[in-house]
Amino acid sequence: MTRELLEVRDLTVHFRQGAGPLGGVGRIVRAVDGVSFRLQEGESLGLVGESGSGKSTVGRAILRLVSPTGGAIRFEGADLLGLSEGALRPLRRKMQMIFQDPQLSLNPRRTVMRSVAAPLIVHERLAGRALRERVRQLLETVGLQREHMYRYPHELSGGQRQRIGLARALALRPRLLVLDEPTSALDVSVQAQMLALLERLQAELSLTYLLISHNLAVVRHICDRVAVMYLGRIVETAPVEGLFRDPRHPYTQALLSAVPAIEADVARTEIILEGDVPSPLRVPSGCRFHPRCPRRLGDVCVQRDPAMLPLGPHHEVACHLYTATPAAPPDRAV
User: Which of 88, 143, 277, 313 could form a disulfide linkage to 83, CB 3.0–4.6 angstroms apart?
Assistant: First the structure.
């Protein structure tokens, strides 16, 4: 029986934009505005959505790399937002992040040895031969050799740099990895190698993944469940195959309609959304997707913010289409 590892409840992350030269109190950027989900041990949850939806901010807030404005984050039962920095430090060993750009996540003046060794020196006080041996083992775990230990980031390929970031994240034997677009900066063939490596490591090391991505093919390949974000909110969650087979929210339908179909006999009608994603400085009233929604119902969508509604086992959606006309769900275009 699996246990719950992470619970995020009503998480908000708001930033205040500067007042500017003419004074004023500034404006509030609602980057994350009430996000809730749970993550079981050994599970992979994909967090998807357009750029600016708040996906990466959620991941950074869980690790306290940005300060949440409100809500609750519980990891192994501990309230992360109620802990001081000193009390949080032992838990940081168990939560690590893989960043999107491996070039920027590594110090160009440090060798691979120094980069991977840093958490071992700080948290485990390793030194000398024991430190070098541990770094060598970590590099072998991610498919690299001893010879890479004394190279600099610019001497490595993009795929090798991402493996270095993964080795550093694994150094303290974490339980949760937040993967922020881990393959987006890599060539297609290297992406496949990285995904295979992540799958192998999850099985061997009993890892739990929160995968942040806009690449739905990657999410479908590696995740058990998917949460779809739009403008700081989760609008639909479902098991991965259920979501791809039967998307319910109009935004999810539009996202999936844009994914190329490999099967020749699969007919799809691409849904073209009107306009751009609204600014988190000016969040629309009611359902925040209504200005772009091809199925909006009128005043109810403009005035009322929809709550999450269960539609089936582990499938939830925040949409008035299902509360206003529960007996006649809308046609699905995907």
Answer: 88
- Beta pairing class for 315-317 and 233-239: antiparallel
Q: How far apart are CA 91 and CA 48, in angstroms?
A: 26
Count the alpha carbons within 13 Å of 65 in the hemisphere toward its beta carbon: 13
**pLDDT value at position 25?**
59
What pTM value is reported for the model? 0.89
Rg, the chain, Cα only: 21
Cα–Cα distance measured from residue 328 to residue 331, given in angstroms and rounded to the nearest whole number: 9
Q: Identify the band that residue 217 occupies on the pLDDT scale cut at 50, 70 and 90.
A: confident
pLDDT at 190 over 60: yes
Query: Strand runs (DSSP E) across the chain, as ranges?
Result: 4-17, 27-40, 44-48, 70-75, 78-79, 95-98, 176-180, 208-213, 225-230, 233-239, 309-312, 315-317
Residue type, 242: G
Q: Hey, what domains does the chain have and what are their CATH numbers?
A: 39-63+86-94+174-324 (3.40.50.300)
In this model, does residue 71 exceed pLDDT 90?
yes
Placement of tokens 């992470």 in the chain: 6
Query: What are the CA-CA distances from residue 136 to residues 140, 149, 167 (Å)?
Result: 6, 7, 10
Say if residue 146's pLDDT is above 50.
yes
